[in-house]
TrEMBL record:
Top-rank lineage group of the source organism: Bacteria
Cross-referenced InterPro entries: ClpP/crotonase-like_dom_sf, ECH/Chromodomain_protein, Enoyl-CoA_hydra/iso
Main location: other
Keyword field contains Isomerase: yes
Coiled coil: none
Isomerase is among the record's keywords: yes
Stated name of the protein: Enoyl-CoA hydratase/isomerase family protein
Record organism: Mycolicibacterium arenosum
Length: 251
């Protein structure tokens, strides 16, 4: 299973389960995660959604092998939902989303934090937005969400530098709410998730709606701008060189 599901005390834990690829998102994982989040949002027994990863990574971001295939393979098949479907689902979630970042978070594995209502990070976790090192544009509406969340200068550094940010730096910036020792990460995240899940679900959803609704139009507009820039840059000389270098390292 690409995604594991566990229910307890009104909390649905969705665990990315592609550890051999550091939970990198290929089309199949995008689809499986989208379906899992939509199902949790629609299930009346679920009050809170907790997303985490298996193994030493939260998610290594987009599967770069598939990214290269998207450019070079005329028969490449996109998933039913793909990346856009996941972003639309994250934007439209009505229930609280908690993230437990258990390890490396790269690309969408970092920008997804912008959609978290509460973010917990392992003390050994690190984040990177490698867009400039790949010669592409930001994604997941991060060009809007990160400045809103952590300020323009912190967002500019993360999005422009392609450098690592450790858990403590993420907390100081406001990307993470709690930093936990690795063995304490899931118990701590579940403890807080269960507190929220003990509250009336319609009230939880009302609070989230009033917080998120004013930003949904801005998120959609940012995503549209990013898609346009990504389309221009995908397959450019810088992007092709970066993907070729990655492929060489894999061989």
């Amino acid at each position: 299973m690409l995604v594991n599901i566990d229910d307890a005390n009104g909390v649905r834990t969705v665990t990315l389960n592609r550890p051999e690829a550091l939970n990198a998102f290929n089309e199949a994982l995008y689809d499986a995660t989208t379906i899992a989040l939509r199902d949790a949002d629609a299930d009346p027994s679920v009050g809170v959604i907790l997303l985490t990863g298996t193994g030493r990574a939260f998610s290594a971001g987009n599967d770069l092998v598939e990214m290269q295939a998207r450019i070079t393979d005329p028969d490449f098949q996109s998933g039913e939902y793909g990346f856009p479907g996941l972003i639309d689902t994250l934007t439209d979630l009505r229930k609280p989303l908690l993230l437990a970042v258990n390890g490396l978070g790269v690309g969408i594995g970092a920008t997804i934090l912008g959609y978290g209502d509460l973010v917990f990070m392992s003390s050994t976790a690190r984040l990177k937005c490698p867009f400039t090192s790949l010669g592409v544009a930001p994604e997941a509406a991060s060009s809007y969400l990160l400045p809103q969340l952590i300020g323009r200068q912190n967002a500019a550094w993360i999005l422009m530098s392609s450098e690592w940010v450790d858990a403590q730096e993420a907390k100081e910036m406001g990307l993470a709410w709690r930093v936990c020792e690795p063995d304490d990460l899931l118990p701590e995240a579940r403890k807080y998730a269960e507190v929220l899940a003990s509250r009336p679900i319609p009230s939880l959803m009302a609070v989230k709606h009033t917080i998120v609704e004013p930003t949904r139009g801005e998120i959609a507009a940012a995503a549209k701008r990013e898609y346009a820039q990504f389309e221009v840059l995908l397959g450019s000389a810088a992007n092709a060189d970066a993907l070729a270098a990655f492929a060489d390292r894999k061989d």
